[in-house]
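To whoever picks this up:

The parser on our side crashed when reading a file containing two proteins. I've narrowed it down to the boundary between the first structure block and the second sequence. Both blocks are reproduced below exactly, byte for byte. First block:
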Amino acid sequence: MRPGRAETAWIAAGCGLILTLVWHEMAVLGDGFWCIAAGDFVLRHHAFPDSDPFSFTSRHVPWLMDMPAFQIGGAWLAAHFGLLALMAACTLPIASAAAILWLTFARDTRARLLAFPVALLYVLVDADDLSARGQAFGDLGLAVLIILLVRLRRGRRVHPLWPLLLAGVWANFHPSFVLAAALPVAFASAEWLEPRSRRAPVTTLLVFAGLAVVGACLNPASLLLFVDIAELCGDPTTARVDLFTTPDFRRPQWLLPIAVALVLLVVLARRAKLERARADAALLIGFVLAECMARRYTTMLVAFEMVLVAEQAAASTSRSLTGRASVGLAGAAAVQALLSAGLLAERKDPLRDVPAESVQAIERLGLPDHVLSPYHWGGYLDWVWAGRRKTFIDGRGQLFSNGVFDDAQRLSAAAPGARMLLDIYEIRTVLSESRGPLDRALSKDDAWREVHRDRLAALYVRR
């Protein structure tokens, strides 16, 4: 159904609101900084690093850049146009992912109205982790993948170049490219729950997965990238990063996707005779279980929910807009435009979450090397120091499964034995979170002297 003027204005304002909400939450966190630090290394040396150039505690093993396009491209963009440009470049793919999932399947007014809150929920569950990093392009890859798989399930033709191109580009931007091969297999498995007469072409889905594997080899490391990703997934440090832990279900943004899933399961149960109802229910349950295992997969659940809400709404009787409804949509468009304008007017500081002042103080005061800093600040130190000073730990968890990851947590928590660890690692300067456990412990330790403090961090040096 072709939208009228009021609805077109509302759709445009809705896309604008999604974009500005993503921009409002966008930041540059630790992973983003160590990524562009690696890209800076390549741009300076015109070669990929064959070992870790940033940390003095990491395992002495080869280090593979697993998202070269983002790391090099992001470094170039930040160097020439600043960190705000990098944040903007990562805002667009996330907002685009939500918008295209919303509008591709919501073909009439009813479907668009019902699916729009789910599109906003997509941004909400991503809000805590919105950072200028390769995952932004992983979100867009996931959206395109779901669209292609749904087309295949409907019996529509998808050109063989699509999985090759999608996986090839995705593999150079983020390790989540493995979904391009894994999700088609999951979709094909779910189809076996359908009667033979209603079953989507399983073979086509499996061929899509195979082509995606071939396409993913189009990266500088080729097949070695798969080995690296397998090691990353199996590394014990990965399971302990907050992105891959169970969500805090006391917070509404993690419960809402499950509530939407329960409503959809009830609708699918009532329409069990419809095509793909059983397969959709199985996939939905699988995505809910994935969210319960790790909050990172919540966006995958909400993306699939957007598709189902739009399709189930389209299956219902749709009516044309009345005059009052058109006025209501026009008013909603005006409100959304005002909200977007307010969000855009906010001043963004790309260094708001990192201890920029304390790092400047380290240089100004000439503090000694072997600087201890928390896990989530290590990436920023990688970028600022560019290997000139070595960091203690950063977000590349698999490089620190030699015990450093555990020791870093003990040190940050000032756990028993922390003072001994400071001696073992020969730490001479401590960059601690202000008023954190380690800050409180060192403030009472005569062996350490406070030399700087700001809103985020406290600096201590050995006496």
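<<boundary where parser fails>>
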Amino acid sequence: MLRKFLIGKGKAEGEGSKEERVPSGKDRLIELLIHDLTGPLAIASSSTASLINRMDQYGALNDKQRHLVERALRNIRKTQVLLQEMVEVFQSEEGFFKCEFFRVEEIVKGALMDVLEAADPQLTERLHGEKALEEWKRVVEPQGISIEIDGKYRHSPFCHDPKKVRQVLRNLISNAWKYRSQKMHVVIRGDQDLLLSVVNDGVVIPPEAQEAVFKRFVRLKDGGRPDVPGLGLGLTGVKALVEAMGGDVSLVSNEESGTCFTVRIPPIQS
């Protein structure tokens, strides 16, 4: 169950709340899109999955057919994730957060799995069979991915909305994966607030463009890789979510250390 928290003051709804925000025409349009797309996507997902998992009922697929159906299913589920991310941002803007304790390590593994599922299905299959973080590190290291978890939350649980924390980290990892040259480094630390950092060794973002990357539909131009996918919404969602959670996001980018996005999220006082 979601509860409405006044982030930064430790109060649930009823103990004082933010001034009511009047929905704009754009907000209402997005709400309608979310509502109208959820049902058809769920039907498309379940129907496509049935073609793969219930061949005794619908008939066997040859290799080419199975490949196309699996590709369609992956993209349907990717669209469902994007739609759910819109819901999470809307909920955060209204102050709705699910307060629970969770292990940060599981959020890191889940967010990484979300990104790799579309980018490298074979690597994802290998990770499905591993549970220990040390084994995960061993599997992803040849792909230029390193993971470091230090500080209080290496062993102690963190209290906040796990779905929203996972969404923030997933978008940071997805951005770093797309723009990396060879390496991506995920670092978790903090002894009070949770600090999430994702570093990549790809394109450097000049100082004059660093504020713009958090705006909607803004995408980096990498002359070496003009086909970098994306709509330019991921970092916008990160900023909106993190600020609604009472935290902040910062960016450092230079030739020596690469591009590093760092998010600070204070815990909810349960």
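After patching the parser it read the second block fine. The two ends are 14 Å apart (CA to CA). The first helix runs from residue 25 to 53.
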